[in-house]
Amino acid sequence: MHAAAARAGPAARRGRRRLDRGPGPRAGPGPATRARERGPAAAEGAAAARWQEPGGRDTRSHGGVAVEVRVDRETGALSVLRAAVVADTGRVVNSVAHRGQLEGGFVCGLSQTLIEDLCVEDGTVTTASLGDYKIASGADVPPLDVRTLPPHPTTGDLPLSVGELVNVGVAPAVANAVADATCAWVRALPITPERVLAALQATQGDTKGDRPPIVTSRCR
To answer: Which of 127, 149, 189 has the alpha carbon at shortest distance from 58?
Structure first.
């Protein structure tokens, strides 16, 4: 352990110098230095650190998620009827692995959105096994349409990352679909029937007579 720590220290310092100076002995200021010089960031993420220079290749992947849901306004029960993911990941090298990453990412995101709930009581995790911490299975996955955009001219033939690309888009897509169907916003995960029902009850002007008991979001 002491030997590993001794090796980790110099490696961390080299990484810090690379961020401050940029790679290579003749490189200019690194992204960390450029970000500090700019002061409060005027933009987020890659734009704030100027990872991509104007006119250069766009090396970022992009993805989108859309879902259609059905909500029971009496109980808060939620069903995802169908879903679609769209990926802009440059040139696809292996179509089977590429699709697998998108499908797997969607399933992971859906599991986090609707099922997974890490419970902590008095500083102790109480959902300590898969008997208590539930995850999605194949039976929970709705029909999924996967589409890949052709490479953008700014990307050229460059393959871009696709691993876990659409995971984070599932939760906002489901929450937006629930709001589209019910006018109620759920702002915590997982989106359980209890939370949907609480959001419905908290919606001002919401009455049972306003809309049918079973409502479906509009899939655009």
So the answer is: 149
pLDDT for 190-207, tens place per residue?
A: 999 999 999 999 986 544
Distance CA 113, CA 174 (A): 8
Amino acid sitting at position 162: V
CA distance 24 to 31: 14
Coil, strand, or helix at residue 85?
strand
| Residue pair 31/21 in contact by the 8 Å Cβ criterion | no
d(CA 87, CA 167): 12
Give the Cβ contact number of residue 192 at 10 Å.
17
Length of the chain: 220
pTM of structure: 0.71
pLDDT digits (tens, 9 = 90+) for 72-101: 999 999 999 999 999 999 999 999 999 999
Read off the tokens for 21. Answer: 């100076």
Using CA atoms of 38, 41, 47, 49 in order, give the dihedral in degrees to the nearest 10. Answer: 50
